[in-house]
Specification:
By secondary structure, the chain is an alpha/beta fold. Helix 1 crosses helix 7 and helix 2 packs across helix 5. Helices cover about 30% and strands about 25% of the residues. The chain has 7 helices and 12 strands. The chain has a single domain, classed as Collagenase (Catalytic Domain) (3-Layer(aba) Sandwich). The structure holds zinc ion (ZN).
């Protein structure tokens, strides 16, 4: 590989990192499995993931206050029965809770929730998304070996009582006993993906290095989920 090529490859990687500080990870098959487990009987709920979109909101990539959560959820796009999944870098506030152990926040009865990209991309990703969706569907926390346990625990069990609650949610659509929930992923970005003007490149690279630096100092592991 020539030096020019090497530089080009590195720059491409950096641009990719800068424009997608947060990133989307959804395991639709695993979400389908969670929402079709035994407690759903023979009427599973199909989780349908729509087209992802981007919102330019650099100030909301790292959420530290309840007000910022509100700002994010006020960006909801689509009808009332379309759930918006927001992907950001970090969140440390949700409802009345604050703390660096928070990794996701969902409206308790609502159609918006937000998660940290890194956790959506971890071994807990599907559990995290399914848990926050559970809050949207009207489920409170349930301590124990359940999906709605407030901390990530590798459990995805939903009780029959919870499934009965889920079926009452306006998010659950139903035609001829086929049940589904529509979900649109929303990526919060520092820069819109298509940036090509050379004049912006220097600023862009500065953003890249700031970003890399932040990643290092904010690297943390936590397993808490909070409802909004
Ligand atoms: Zn929760």
């Amino acid at each position: 590989m020539t030096l020019e090529k090497s530089i080009a490859v590195i720059m491409t990687l950096l641009i990719s990192a800068a424009s997608q500080a947060a990133y989307i990870t959804i395991n639709e098959a695993e979400l389908d499995r969670i929402y079709s487990q035994d407690s759903f009987g023979d009427l599973p709920i199909d989780i349908r993931i729509g087209q992802p979109s981007e919102i330019l909101a650099p100030n909301l990539l790292d959420i530290t206050t309840r007000e910022e959560v509100r700002q994010l959820f006020n960006m909801h796009s689509g009808g009332f029965n379309i759930v918006n999944f927001y992907f950001i870098d970090t969140i440390s506030a949700c409802g009345s809770s604050t703390g660096t152990n928070i990794v996701g926040c969902g409206e308790y009865f609502g159609n918006d929730f937000v998660v940290e990209s890194r956790f959506a991309d971890s071994g807990y990703g599907s559990e995290l998304l399914a848990h926050e969706l559970g809050h949207n569907l009207g489920l409170p926390h349930l301590n124990g070996a359940f999906l709605m346990n407030p901390s990530l625990n590798n459990r995805t069990l939903l009780t029959e009582a919870e499934v009965a609650q889920i079926r009452q949610s306006p998010l659950v659509q139903n035609v001829d006993n086929t049940y589904w929930i529509d979900i649109n992923p929303v990526l919060i970005v520092r820069e819109l993906t298509k940036v090509s003007e050379p004049a912006t490149f220097v600023l862009f690279m500065l953003a890249v290095f700031t970003l890399l630096c932040r990643c290092k100092v904010s690297n943390k592991y936590a397993f808490s989920l909070e409802r909004y």
